[in-house]
Amino acid sequence: MDGLMTVEDTRAFDYVVIGAGSAGSAVTGRLVAQTGATVLVLEAGERGADTGSLAEPTRWMENMGAAYDYGYHYEPHRATHDRVLPLPRGKLLGGSGGINGMLWTRGQHDDYDEWAAAGNRGWDYDSVLPLFRRSEDWEDGAGPLHGAGGPVHVERAHGLHPVATALIRAGRSLGLPYLDDATSPAEGVGPSTLNVRDGRRENPWQAFVGPLADEDRLTVATGADARRLTFSRGRCTGVEYAVDGHLSRAVARGEVVLCAGAIDTPRLLMRSGVGPADDLADLGIEAVADLPGVGRDLQEHVLAAGLCLEAAEPLGPLKNNLEGSVAFLRSTGGSARPDLMFVTLQIPFVSPEIGEQYAPPENGFCIFPGLAAPRSRGRLTMHADGSLEIQPNLLAEQADVDALVEAVDIGFELASDPAFADITERWAVPDRRLDRAETAAFVRDAALPYFHAAGTCAMGPVVDEELRVHGVDGLRIADASVMPAITRAFPHATTVMIGEQAGRLLTA
Q1: How many CA atoms lie within 13 Å of 49's alpha carbon, on the beta-carbon side?
Q2: CA atoms of 230 and 252, how far apart (whole Å)
Q3: What are the boundaries of each domain within the chain?
Q4: Dihedral, CA atoms, 15, 19, 24, 25, nearest 10 degrees?
Q5: Could you tell me how many helices (H) and strands (E) the chain has, helices first?
């Protein structure tokens, strides 16, 4: 189809940013605020409304499958009983940061030290801490670990729901330390930390770019479908994109920054000839740069949805982001730091397959055990028409099955604590505590992705430590796809930090 379209106009900018998600918002904000450069931002989605489910924290789950969701899915795999699994991705200014659950955690310090130890200089925790602080407007003000006055307001969940309080009390009963600050979680349990301001979602686009919207040097094109990157003599010179069926070309005098996310960044690279040369040849695409790592090493957190209990009585209005508290624990599989994470949900929610086996209560709540450090790895496969098969291989590694079984067992322990007994009428899903063999079968039906796709254009195989794509000039990537290993926490804050790092490198 692209071959039948004629470029109707060409414009030049100093920088072209493709994707206005969490990282793209940070990059754009820094480029516009700190340079005199002209910046074009291309976003396939539209400008989301600052109302309803996009703004109200308790309604974020309504965004899944709705107007501002790409509606991607993960392919079936025998390890998860051949189920098609959802993969919501935000299609609006702010990207997935505009529809997600608003949890703001950085991961373990060692996560970043391991990135650096793998050869990615400048990505150790001490080096990236200033970037985290720079983004933040922490509710307690500035300190050694936090910033104040930054674009993104971050606060603890306040006025906790009884279910969130019960998780904290139960975790303390099991000997977990209390986490007063879950942004940099060690092992423990405490209130969630959220990117929420005055009871409303802090959308990253509004946070970083909203105050700069009237700058003449900033051009934002929404509904813009990036078709292919353009190259000349080994340098990325720009991008061709379509809006309302009209094909345009943007020329970058400086650099192109690709921030389309862990799914669409590798897709655009492969469509443009950057990726595994043999695979590209099979599609009739001439390779500009042979990078076998493009689209490989897909990583995804996994949860078991879910352990569901019927409430003894109505528990009051929904609060915070439907969760409100979080726990990080170490499994017995030899991990030196937390590799399991738990949240609660103030409403009953289970996978469709588990819902067919048990009857979730109308008045109930859930505990979600999950894997923070999955070992299974997946990949993206592109077809000739540009469509993708996204295969995460969830639970393909037996170590992941064992860890999730252990996490569910811990979930049973938490739910059996008096803290939950006080608000529970009965076990509903499952309707009793399962033995190990039963739990192993349960997790394959209950497993769902956390919607945290990462690693598909990782530092090392695809980009260098300054986020420059190997084999070409003038092209950087800044989004979750560059993570060498997914962090052991909810990765939104890390994705923003990656955008801050790109902004720092481009404005240095």
Answers
A1: 6
A2: 10
A3: 2-50+204-297+455-507, 158-191+300-449
A4: 100
A5: 12, 27
Q: Which residues, including other chains, have CB under 8 Å from residue 19's CB and lie 6 or more apart?
A: 42, 43, 44, 95, 258, 259, 260, 261, 264, 265, 479
Q: Which two tokens stand for residue 462?
A: 């695809």
Three-class secondary structure of residue 250 per DSSP: strand
Across the range 129-145, mean pLDDT stands at 98
Q: Is 177 helix (H, G, I), strand (E, B) or coil?
A: coil
Instruction: Of 490, 508, 499, give the one whose Cα is nearest residue 104.
Output: 490
Q: Which two tokens stand for residue 389?
A: 């098969």
| CATH ID of 2-50+204-297+455-507, from 3.30.565.10, 3.40.50.300, 3.50.50.60, 3.30.450.20 | 3.50.50.60
Q: Give 147-153's long-range contacts (Cβ < 8 A, gap of 24+).
A: 151/26, 151/29, 151/204, 151/207, 151/208, 152/104, 152/195, 152/202, 152/204, 152/207, 152/208, 152/496, 153/195, 153/196, 153/197, 153/202, 153/207
Phi, psi angles (nearest 5°) of residue 310 = -85, 130
Per-residue b or e along 290-315, where b marks 16 or more CB atoms closer than 10 Å to that residue's CB = bbebbbbbbbbbbbbbbbbbbbeeeb
Q: To which residue do tokens 């079968």 refer? A: 441
Measured between alpha carbons, how far is 260 from 473 in angstroms, rounded to an integer?
19
Which strand (E) or helix (H) includes residue 472?
Answer: none
Q: Which pTM was predicted?
A: 0.97
Which amino acid is present at 130? P
Alpha-carbon gap, residue 345 to 343, rounded angstroms: 7
Question: One of 77, 146, 301, 452 is an active-site residue; which one?
Answer: 452
Distances (CA, A) of 104 to 270, 383, 490: 31, 35, 7
CA distance 279 to 103: 37
Helix (H) or strand (E) holding 56: none
Report residue 404: phi and psi, to 5°: -70, -35
Q: At CA 393, angle to CA 392 and CA 396, rounded to 5? A: 155
Q: What is the arrangement of strands in the sheet containing 152-156, beginning at the earlier edge strand?
A: 136-138, 152-156, 193-194
Give the closest residue to 458 by CA, choosing from 255, 260, 266, 231: 266
What letter does residue 275 receive in the DSSP assignment?
E
- Mean pLDDT estimate for the chain: 96
Residue 120 — φ and ψ, nearest 5°? -100, 80
Judge if 2-50+204-297+455-507 and 158-191+300-449 fold alike in CATH terms.
Answer: no
Q: In this structure, what DSSP letter does residue 268 have?
A: H
SS (H, E, C) 109-121: HHHHHHHHHCCCC
Could you confirm whether 470 is annotated as catalytic?
A: no
At 1, is the pLDDT very low, low, confident or very high (cuts 50, 70, 90)? Answer: very low
Q: What does the alpha-carbon distance between residue 379 and residue 298 come to, in Å, rounded to a whole number?
A: 5
Span 153-165, average pLDDT: 98
CATH of the domain spanning 158-191+300-449: 3.30.560.10
Rg of the Cα atoms in the chain: 22
d(CA 149, CA 475) in angstroms, rounded, equals 31
- Read off the pLDDT of residues 354-396 as tens digits, 9 standing for 90 and up: 999 999 999 999 999 999 999 999 999 999 999 999 999 999 9
